[in-house]
């Protein structure tokens, strides 16, 4: 799979067009024209169609204080009402909402009525502890019915949730708890992944013990494995005990459309992750709308998004979008390679999944696994229930796209390559399966109403065929509202003055000269994308230099990786002489673990190289472009005349 195959065009088949919510390019173009003609009216129409409002809004977009845009601001609603009650009220209470498959294969189904009852009991439990509208609740839990119900319960009482991915370390969890000022943490005793029991509650204990989390009054623990745990009196409670006597109904807290539904931390180009704040009304609209149009979700579909609820994909396309539409979806606790690399395919077969949404990294690693072992090749499974495939999180290379299309989609399923971000709340540039001709490797065209464009450094449009900076010209309902507690950073990061008031995505892109199709060329800032996970280079550098005993200086860059998209490569100067051989290996392993403890295992550098110094200009600036070339294993052809210490390059090229 080393050479990408040449690109082809795949027109939507008659089957994909038939009955699609958006069928044919003419339908797509009509929607784009409607939005062009009156942006605010277009979104208002959809907000009335897709969201049930307690109090209808009278104004669509309020752009009186850019870039702090508001949508549907005088309307009130409740996200959990929209995801649960309204389907039960419509007589769909007996429909399966979630099909949960545990790591070990046990399956639990919950209907809309059951999920509503569970959500209400958790909501009442939270209320009994004094948690109320506007409070923040951190959720540190693995994939589970209770994870989804906990998010819904927070939404129900107007508490703002902040889910922290279960792979983050105690230190990262602590930082997020402190930044949110959370009053409660919802967790589980343990999580189970790949047959292993891993701690959750113990990490919460460790995080709280690190200090700075005095806001936390309650820790609620869901029982997953039954592990013995120390419970702090007055602070820790078992969820099942708390909710045992709670009623199964709970009047939703009707919140203003702009009320923060959640905060989700993501990496930026500085050391500190930012708390992306999302609204209730606009966010929910786009989560529901994109689930309907991009995934063409129908009443009898079995939808499976493999993301974790700790990431934005798990928010929009597990916790909110499919539920807002009354769909049936899979929630999977485990990993794609356990008990073997056929797990995804077996689950598609067993549950008759019709829409499957995953990340290119997963596809690439499963291609490798299938090529190495016939027994886990997708052809051994019946995947005929599939009708649509999706990809998210990073560019999908044409060869992986073709394999996915042929081997998983049987050549008949369209692939929606969805470009979006934590900050955008939902899909931004994506094919619509019944309309858009597909080109492998391209996320094709903007979602109707999303004014994506490519500009130069001064905000002027660049012609198709010429690369530039990806922006969104007009505000859209599910956009980030601010960075929690740091509105200045929000403005600076996303609305730099030179870009004429456009939203700066942070990615480079190019449009095809003929078709205008978008291809994302990668981040233009210091953000890496490793296995579809966003990591800031500065964040990893800070983690490395915080090992003050060993590390004097560190610089982190990304390099292309066949499986994970990008890999993390760290260049380190130690406080002791530069190590070689076994000693270098040992220290590299130590530093990897250090980063794992500081941030989480996903941030561990793949390569660590040691030097007596880093390549610097005479004014002391680290020359990162040289480090990027070294990381890739390229010969240095760039001009190194401004380099103070050229000899260092050879040292740094040595791998451990
Ligand atoms: O670089 C882009 C890449 O992932 C970044 C957003 O990461 P995150 O906020 O973690 O959200 C991931 C899930 C939506 C983007 O700035 N990215 C995401 N989707 C694609 C992509 N790059 C290329 N193609 C995509 N489909």
UniProtKB/TrEMBL annotation:
<keyword id="KW-0007">Acetylation</keyword>
<feature type="binding site">
    <location>
        <begin position="393"/>
        <end position="395"/>
    </location>
    <ligand>
        <name>ATP</name>
    </ligand>
</feature>
<dbReference type="InterPro" id="IPR000873">
    <property type="entry name" value="AMP-dep_synth/lig_dom"/>
</dbReference>
<feature type="modified residue" description="N6-acetyllysine">
    <location>
        <position position="621"/>
    </location>
</feature>
<dbReference type="InterPro" id="IPR045851">
    <property type="entry name" value="AMP-bd_C_sf"/>
</dbReference>
<dbReference type="InterPro" id="IPR011904">
    <property type="entry name" value="Ac_CoA_lig"/>
</dbReference>
<feature type="binding site">
    <location>
        <position position="523"/>
    </location>
    <ligand>
        <name>ATP</name>
    </ligand>
</feature>
<comment type="function">
    <text>Catalyzes the conversion of acetate into acetyl-CoA (AcCoA), an essential intermediate at the junction of anabolic and catabolic pathways. AcsA undergoes a two-step reaction. In the first half reaction, AcsA combines acetate with ATP to form acetyl-adenylate (AcAMP) intermediate. In the second half reaction, it can then transfer the acetyl group from AcAMP to the sulfhydryl group of CoA, forming the product AcCoA.</text>
</comment>
<keyword id="KW-0479">Metal-binding</keyword>
<dbReference type="Pfam" id="PF00501">
    <property type="entry name" value="AMP-binding"/>
</dbReference>
<comment type="similarity">
    <text>Belongs to the ATP-dependent AMP-binding enzyme family.</text>
</comment>
<keyword id="KW-0460">Magnesium</keyword>
<dbReference type="Pfam" id="PF13193">
    <property type="entry name" value="AMP-binding_C"/>
</dbReference>
<dbReference type="Pfam" id="PF16177">
    <property type="entry name" value="ACAS_N"/>
</dbReference>
<keyword id="KW-0547">Nucleotide-binding</keyword>
<feature type="binding site">
    <location>
        <position position="534"/>
    </location>
    <ligand>
        <name>ATP</name>
    </ligand>
</feature>
<dbReference type="GO" id="GO:0003987">
    <property type="term" value="F:acetate-CoA ligase activity"/>
</dbReference>
<feature type="domain" description="Acetyl-coenzyme A synthetase N-terminal">
    <location>
        <begin position="28"/>
        <end position="83"/>
    </location>
</feature>
<feature type="domain" description="AMP-binding enzyme C-terminal">
    <location>
        <begin position="539"/>
        <end position="621"/>
    </location>
</feature>
<dbReference type="InterPro" id="IPR020845">
    <property type="entry name" value="AMP-binding_CS"/>
</dbReference>
<protein>
    <recommendedName>
        <fullName>Acetyl-coenzyme A synthetase</fullName>
        <ecNumber>6.2.1.1</ecNumber>
    </recommendedName>
</protein>
<feature type="binding site">
    <location>
        <position position="551"/>
    </location>
    <ligand>
        <name>Mg(2+)</name>
    </ligand>
</feature>
<feature type="binding site">
    <location>
        <position position="545"/>
    </location>
    <ligand>
        <name>Mg(2+)</name>
    </ligand>
</feature>
<feature type="domain" description="AMP-dependent synthetase/ligase">
    <location>
        <begin position="90"/>
        <end position="476"/>
    </location>
</feature>
<dbReference type="InterPro" id="IPR042099">
    <property type="entry name" value="ANL_N_sf"/>
</dbReference>
<feature type="binding site">
    <location>
        <position position="531"/>
    </location>
    <ligand>
        <name>CoA</name>
    </ligand>
</feature>
<feature type="binding site">
    <location>
        <position position="313"/>
    </location>
    <ligand>
        <name>CoA</name>
    </ligand>
</feature>
<feature type="binding site">
    <location>
        <position position="507"/>
    </location>
    <ligand>
        <name>ATP</name>
    </ligand>
</feature>
<keyword id="KW-0067">ATP-binding</keyword>
<dbReference type="InterPro" id="IPR025110">
    <property type="entry name" value="AMP-bd_C"/>
</dbReference>
<feature type="binding site">
    <location>
        <begin position="417"/>
        <end position="422"/>
    </location>
    <ligand>
        <name>ATP</name>
    </ligand>
</feature>
<feature type="binding site">
    <location>
        <begin position="193"/>
        <end position="196"/>
    </location>
    <ligand>
        <name>CoA</name>
    </ligand>
</feature>
<keyword id="KW-0436">Ligase</keyword>
<dbReference type="InterPro" id="IPR032387">
    <property type="entry name" value="ACAS_N"/>
</dbReference>
């Amino acid at each position: 799979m080393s050479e990408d195959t040449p690109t082809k065009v795949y027109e939507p088949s008659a089957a994909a067009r038939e009955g699609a919510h958006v069928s044919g390019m003419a339908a797509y173009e009509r929607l784009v024209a409607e939005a062009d003609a009156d942006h605010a009216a277009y979104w208002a129409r959809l907000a009335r169609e897709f969201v049930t409002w307690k109090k209808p809004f009278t104004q669509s977009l309020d752009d009186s204080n850019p870039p702090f845009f508001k949508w549907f601001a005088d309307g009130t609603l409740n996200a959990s009402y929209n995801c649960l009650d309204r389907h039960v009220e419509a007589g769909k209470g007996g429909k399966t909402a979630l099909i949960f498959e545990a790591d070990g294969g046990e399956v639990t189904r919950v209907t809309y009525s059951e999920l509503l009852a569970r959500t209400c009991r958790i909501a009442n439990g939270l209320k009994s502890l004094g948690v109320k509208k506007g409070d923040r609740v951190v959720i540190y839990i693995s994939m589970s019915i209770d994870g989804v119900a906990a998010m819904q319960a927070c939404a129900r009482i107007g508490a703002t949730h902040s889910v922290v991915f279960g792979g983050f370390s105690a230190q990262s969890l602590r930082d997020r708890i402190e930044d949110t000022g959370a009053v409660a943490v919802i967790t589980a005793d343990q999580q189970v992944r790949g047959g292993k029991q891993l701690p959750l509650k113990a990490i919460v204990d460790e995080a709280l013990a690190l200090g700075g989390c005095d806001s936390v009054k309650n820790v609620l623990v869901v029982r997953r494995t039954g592990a013995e745990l120390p419970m702090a009196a007055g602070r820790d409670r078992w969820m099942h005990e708390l909710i045992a006597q709670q009623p199964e109904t709970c009047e939703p807290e009707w919140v203003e459309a702009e009320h923060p539904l959640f905060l989700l931390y993501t990496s930026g180009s500085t050391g500190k992750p930012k708390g992306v704040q999302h609204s209730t009304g606009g966010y929910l609209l786009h989560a529901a709308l994109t689930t309907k149009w991009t995934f063409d979700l129908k009443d009898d579909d079995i939808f499976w998004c493999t993301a974790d609820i700790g990431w934005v994909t798990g928010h929009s396309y597990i916790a909110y979008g499919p539920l807002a539409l009354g769909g049936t979806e899979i929630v999977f606790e485990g990993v794609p390679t356990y008990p073997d690399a056929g797990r995804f395919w077996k689950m598609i077969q067993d549950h008759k999944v019709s829409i499957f949404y995953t990340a290119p990294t997963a596809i690439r690693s499963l291609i490798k696994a299938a090529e190495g072992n016939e027994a886990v090749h997708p052809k051994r499974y019946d995947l005929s229930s599939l009708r649509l495939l999706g990809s998210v999180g990073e560019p999908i290379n044409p060869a992986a796209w073709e394999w996915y299309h042929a081997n998983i989609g049987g050549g008949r399923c369209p692939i929606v390559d969805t470009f979006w971000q934590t900050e955008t709340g939902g899909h931004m540039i994506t094919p619509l399966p019944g309309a858009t001709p597909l080109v492998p490797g391209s996320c094709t065209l903007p979602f109707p109403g999303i004014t994506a464009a490519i500009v130069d450094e001064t905000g002027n449009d660049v012609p198709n065929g010429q690369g530039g900076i990806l922006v969104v010209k007009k505000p859209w309902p599910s956009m980030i509202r601010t960075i929690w507690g740091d509105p200045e950073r929000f403005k600076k990061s996303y609305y730099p003055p030179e870009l004429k008031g456009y939203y700066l995505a942070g990615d480079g892109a190019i449009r095809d000269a003929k078709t205008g199709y978008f291809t994302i060329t990668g981040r233009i800032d210091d953000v890496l994308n490793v296995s579809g996970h966003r990591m800031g280079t500065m964040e990893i550098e800070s983690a490395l230099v915080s090992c003050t005993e060993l590390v004097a200086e560190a610089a982190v860059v990304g390099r292309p990786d066949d499986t994970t998209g990008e890999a993390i490569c760290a260049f380190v100067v130690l406080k002791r002489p530069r190590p070689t051989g076994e000693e270098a290996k040992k220290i590299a392993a130590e530093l990897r673990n250090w980063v794992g403890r500081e941030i989480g295992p996903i941030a561990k550098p793949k390569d660590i190289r040691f030097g007596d110094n880093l390549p610097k200009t005479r004014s002391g600036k680290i020359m990162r472009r040289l480090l990027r070339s070294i990381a890739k294993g390229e010969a240095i052809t760039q001009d190194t005349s401004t380099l103070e210490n050229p000899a260092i390059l050879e040292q740094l090229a040595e791998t451990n």
